[in-house]
């Protein structure tokens, strides 16, 4: 009888130890991810992170890698980090639009945002998530995933199509489109090299065909070079 009580007690201790350890691990995992999410969204708001913050993010991420698989982290990157980050960028544009009223220049502000996005945000994200293999697998990358989210959740959530179409109708005004916006459209248009099924990608390529001459639209049934 005493032996059985001792065995049951040991089993209970072992079980409690397992659940305590597992709970601590999950709590630490959630805590790390909350910190990473907060700092990445801060990057989208402020366009920069301090070196000490980057170091702590990397440490938290490495601890997460020990508990989560790469597929889970890559899904969280797309569904949590990027969705929230792009929302910050779009809100900044909308705040500027409300502040400027009728004087708001969408293309100018979008061009400025694009320049900061490419200069500060994407390189920082590449540095932070370089070791997440599923985010950097063949045919995919942090840069590509982030650009696709920028295309879908920022650029195409503005009136850019209407604005560019109106400018192009006034043929003499086509060159008023900022060079940074033309660069943005070409970079986003290049995503079609491995994605010719996305409706959003088709919309971007159609914009490219309006502002870049000559341009081969990969979504055209007959790939002919458009002329002036």
Strand content: under 5%
Instruction: Return the average pLDDT rounded to an integer.
Output: 80
Number of DSSP helical runs: 8
- Residues in helices, as a percent range: over 70%
- Rg over CA atoms, rounded to whole Å, is 24 Å
Largest sheet: none
Low-confidence blocks of residues = 4-28, 222-228
Distance between the termini: 95 Å
Structural class per helix/strand content? mainly alpha
Query: What is the molecular shape?
Result: globular
Q: N-to-C SSE series? A: HHHHHHHH
**Using DSSP, what is the number of strands?**
0
3D structure, described in words:
By secondary structure, the chain is an all-alpha fold. The protein has helices spanning 2-46, 51-65, 70-100, 106-128, 142-153, 160-169, 179-189, 199-211. Helix 1 packs antiparallel against helix 2 and helix 6 packs parallel to helix 8. The longest helix is centred in the N-terminal third of the chain and has 45 residues, at 2-46. It is globular and about 55 Å long. Residues 4-28 and 222-228 have low confidence and may be disordered.
């Amino acid at each position: 009888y005493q032996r059985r009580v001792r065995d049951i007690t040991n089993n209970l201790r072992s079980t409690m130890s397992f659940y305590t350890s597992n709970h601590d691990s999950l709590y630490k995992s959630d805590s790390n991810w909350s910190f990473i999410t907060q700092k990445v969204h801060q990057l989208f708001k402020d366009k920069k992170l301090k070196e000490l913050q980057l170091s702590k993010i990397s440490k938290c991420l490495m601890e997460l890698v020990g508990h989560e698989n790469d597929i889970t982290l890559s899904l969280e990157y797309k569904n949590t980090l990027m969705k929230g980050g792009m929302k910050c960028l779009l809100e900044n544009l909308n705040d500027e639009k409300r502040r400027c009223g009728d004087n708001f220049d969408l293309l100018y502000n979008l061009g400025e945002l694009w320049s900061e996005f490419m200069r500060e945000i994407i390189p920082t994200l590449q540095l932070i998530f370089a070791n997440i293999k599923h985010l950097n697998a063949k045919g995919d990358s942090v840069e590509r995933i982030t650009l696709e989210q920028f295309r879908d959740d920022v650029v195409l959530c503005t009136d850019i199509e209407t604005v560019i179409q109106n400018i192009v109708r006034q043929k003499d005004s086509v060159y008023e489109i900022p060079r940074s916006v033309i660069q943005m459209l070409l970079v986003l248009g290049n995503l079609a090299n491995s994605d010719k099924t996305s409706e959003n990608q088709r919309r971007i390529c159609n914009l490219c065909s309006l502002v870049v001459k000559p341009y081969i639209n990969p979504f055209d049934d007959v790939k002919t070079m458009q002329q002036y």
